[in-house]
Write a structure and sequence with these properties.
alpha/beta, Metallo-beta-lactamase, Chain A
Length: 291
C-alpha cells in the first residue's frame, strides 16, 4: 500500500509517520478551488507532513483551511508548527477540541502519564493562538461542488468530529474508526482513557453505518472503499462489544488489568502490544465505571 496518494478526484491521503513508523497515522487533503487539510499529526512529524505535500505536489502555503478531528496529540499537536507554513489558513475544530488546542498542557501531561516508560513517544503540544469552533451541520465550501460537512462523532473523545465530502462521497472519520489492519482483519477499539465513552462511541458507529459514502478515511491508517468501509465499521462495533464483555467479566472477577489483557489476547491475538492495550483497557474501565 502506498502511503501518500490521491485516491479520488479531489482527496489525498498523507502518512504522518506517527512514532516514526510508516502507515501508523494519517492526515488528509481535500483540494478544489480551495484546499483543506484534515488533521495535522504530531509536532514530531511536521517535516514528514511537509515532505508528503511535496510528494503530492500540493503547495502547503496555499492551504485555506485546517480541520482537527479531535483533541489527541497525534492529530492536533502538529497544528501550531504547520500553521506557520500556511499563512492564510484558518483552523477549525469542535468546541472541546478548540479548548485543548488553545490550552493543551493538561491533556499533554495526562497523556505522558498514561504512556509511562514510553512517554518520549508523546510529542510536544504547542498551543494554537486562534481556532474557530464548528459543529454538526456546518459546511466548508471548497468550490466546484466540493463541500465538507461536519458530522458529530463523539465517543472516542467528547470533541470527535468527522467530515463528509459530498461530491466524492468521502467520509473522514478521524479516530471514530481507528486502527484497522486489512491484511489480518484486526481492529483495535479507540478506547484511550479519560475521554472515551463506550455507549456514545457505539452510537457514532451506528450513525456512520446509516450514512451514504463511498470512501472511509481512517485516523490510523488508510482509506477504505465501499463495501469494505461499511464492513469495517460493523466490525468496529462488534469488537468494541466483545472487548466490553471480556473486560467487564474478567475485571469484576479478578480486579486485575493483567488478567484482562490475557483474556483479550486469548480472543483477539497474542501479538497485541501490552503498552498499547493497557491504555485501551483503562479507557474501558473508566467509561464503564469499573475503576
Amino acid at each position: 500500500m502506498e502511503s501518500d496518494i490521491k485516491f479520488n478526484d479531489c482527496c489525498y491521503q498523507i502518512d504522518t509517520r506517527l512514532w516514526g513508523l510508516p502507515q501508523n497515522g494519517a492526515a488528509y487533503v481535500v483540494q478544489s478551488q480551495k484546499t483543506a487539510l484534515v488533521d495535522a499529526g504530531t509536532a514530531h512529524n511536521v517535516r514528514d507532513v511537509q515532505k508528503a505535500f511535496n510528494n503530492l505536489k500540493i503547495e502547503i502555503a496555499k492551504i485555506d483551511y485546517m480541520i482537527i478531528t479531535h483533541e489527541h496529540y497525534d492529530h492536533g499537536a502538529g497544528a501550531a508548527q504547520l500553521l506557520e507554513k500556511m499563512p492564510k489558513a484558518k483552523i477549525f475544530a469542535s468546541e472541546p477540541t478548540c479548548k485543548v488546542l488553545k490550552q493543551p498542557q493538561e491533556i499533554h501531561e495526562k497523556t505522558q502519564k498514561y504512556y509511562g516508560e514510553a512517554k518520549a513517544l508523546v510529542s510536544p503540544y504547542p498551543p494554537v493562538k486562534e481556532v474557530s469552533a464548528i459543529k454538526e451541520g456546518n459546511k466548508l465550501d471548497l468550490g466546484n461542488g466540493v463541500i465538507l460537512e461536519v458530522i458529530d462523532l463523539k465517543g472516542h473523545t467528547p470533541g470527535s468530529i468527522g467530515l463528509l465530502e459530498h461530491k466524492t462521497k468521502t467520509l473522514f472519520a478521524g479516530d471514530a474508526v481507528c486502527v484497522y489492519n486489512e491484511q489480518t482483519d484486526f481492529y483495535l477499539p479507540p478506547s484511550y482513557p479519560d475521554l472515551f465513552d463506550y455507549q456514545t462511541y457505539q452510537s457514532s458507529l451506528k450513525k456512520m453505518l446509516a450514512m451514504d459514502f463511498d470512501y472511509l478515511c481512517l485516523g490510523h491508517f488508510g482509506t477504505l472503499k465501499r463495501p469494505k468501509a461499511k464492513q469495517v465499521i460493523k466490525k468496529a462495533s462488534e469488537v468494541a462489544q466483545g472487548w466490553k464483555e471480556i473486560i467487564s467479566k474478567t475485571y469484576r472477577e479478578t480486579k486485575s488489568e493483567d488478567r484482562v489483557l490475557e483474556a483479550l489476547r486469548a480472543k483477539y491475538g497474542k501479538t497485541m502490544q501490552k503498552a498499547v492495550v493497557d491504555q485501551m483497557i483503562k479507557g474501558y474501565l473508566v467509561s464503564l465505571k469499573l475503576a
